[in-house]
From TrEMBL:
NCBIfam families: eIF-2B_rel, PRK05720.1, salvage_mtnA
The protein, known as: Methylthioribose-1-phosphate isomerase
E.C. number(s) listed in UniProt: 5.3.1.23
Involved pathway(s): Amino-acid biosynthesis; L-methionine biosynthesis via salvage pathway; L-methionine from S-methyl-5-thio-alpha-D-ribose 1-phosphate: step 1/6
Highest taxon of source: Bacteria
Length: 362
């Protein structure tokens, strides 16, 4: 992705070949600040405090976290401790465990002296694989947008929730990869961006990256989607996912389920973009089996923003003494999903659909 003409990924290795650099997403949309990660603790904090977020980017950061840990202690005990520290950072996105397991598989059979180099190499591969998978799923998703355009011969309106764009991955995004591919091929489109309270990933991150890329978009309050769908103002929804079960249940940012219900009631297709590391083949029933992150109630009771003179401010919106609860994710049952857009193509959200694309997992 380019920012003002300069190509960026969301995570990369610094020139010293050891330090990992990331874009601090808590400073967006107002400032582009690069942070250096120099230790296991830096990597863990960057995930927990959401300097990086989005399932694939959490996985990529955890992979580099293992490499940073190996520099300090590449013994079996050191790697095991790093695995546990990183795994404890956030509970819902399965890409975190996937990446940690990949790193362990690449390292544990090697002599200790070879582990640091191998760790940096596997982490870099995980980043490249994520970028390639998202680019491929973007092509498959763009074909869907192109079909809508061919049928309707006008601007295609796409609704998305949270940020499942370039900033949530190493490159391209998941829900937004089809948008970028379609836009770049000249298909006229417009994106409705759910603000995504309480952390506003839509308003601050999705709008930021669509704006950088020049994609027409409009930020809407989270409860607007149903109204737009009733009035024919949404042609399709595309969202990302933090974990999709082998049955096709989709766990994503809180509020996704309500959009899927509104889409079903209004015959609006509801698609999910996901690279295969986001599929949890060990889980069948998403509602009962996926752990849902609960974050601080303060994210709900307060709103963060910037004053016109650039000062960061935090404003309380609830009365003192009113309790608040902050569930981070919900599960959209497979029956509400029109299709899963993966790097291998588009499939039905069902065990048969997923096994058809990934027969090696059958
Ligand atoms: O809490 P976040 O910001 O990490 O949640 C991100 C999402 O819910 C995304 O939609 C999901 O990770 C898909 S990312 C391509």
């Amino acid at each position: 992705m380019k920012i003002n003409g300069t190509p960026y990924r969301t995570i990369w290795l610094a020139k010293d070949g050891k330090t990992v650099e990331i874009i601090d997403q808590t400073r967006l949309p107002h400032e582009l600040v690069v942070m250096a990660l120099r230790s296991l603790d830096d990597a863990a904090r960057s995930i927990k405090d959401m300097w990086v977020r989005g399932a694939p980017l959490i996985g990529a950061t955890a992979a580099y976290g293992m490499a940073l840990a190996a520099v300090g202690d590449a013994s079996d005990a050191g790697l095991e401790r790093a695995y546990q520290v990183l795994h404890a950072t956030r509970p819902t996105a399965i890409n975190l465990k996937w990446a940690l397991d990949e790193m362990m598989a690449a390292l544990k059979t090697l002599p200790v002296g070879e582990r640091i180099g191998a760790a940096y190499q596997r982490a870099a591969e995980i980043c490249d694989e994520d970028s390639a998978q998202n680019a491929a799923l973007g092509e498959h998703g763009a074909a869907i947008i192109a079909e809508h355009h061919k049928a309707k011969r006008r601007t295609i309106n796409i609704l998305t929730h949270c940020n499942a764009g370039w900033l949530a991955t190493v490159d391209w995004g998941t829900a937004l990869a089809p948008v970028y591919k379609a836009f770049d091929s000249g298909i006229p489109l417009h994106v409705w961006v759910d603000e995504t309270r309480p952390r506003n990933q839509g308003a601050s991150l999705t709008a930021r990256e669509l704006n950088w890329h020049g994609v027409p978009h409009t930020v809407i309050a989270d409860n607007t989607g149903g109204h737009l769908m009733q009035h024919g103002m949404v042609d399709l929804c595309i969202v990302g996912t933090d974990r999709t079960t082998r049955n096709g249940d989709v766990c994503n940012k809180i509020g996704t389920y309500l959009k899927a219900l509104a889409a079903r009631d209004n015959d609006v297709p509801f698609y999910v973009g996901l690279p295969s590391p986001t599929i949890d083949w060990t889980v069948a029933d998403g509602v009962r089996e996926i752990p849902i992150e609960e974050r601080s109630a303060r994210e709900q009771t307060h709103i963060f923003g910037r004053t016109e003179d650039g000062q960061v401010c935090e404003v309380q919106v609830t009365p003192d003494g009113s309790p608040a609860v902050n569930y981070g994710f919900d599960v959209t049952p497979a029956r509400l999903v029109t299709g899963l857009i993966t790097e291998r193509g588009v499939c039905e959200a069902s065990p048969e659909g997923l096994r058809g694309l990934f027969p090696e997992r059958a």
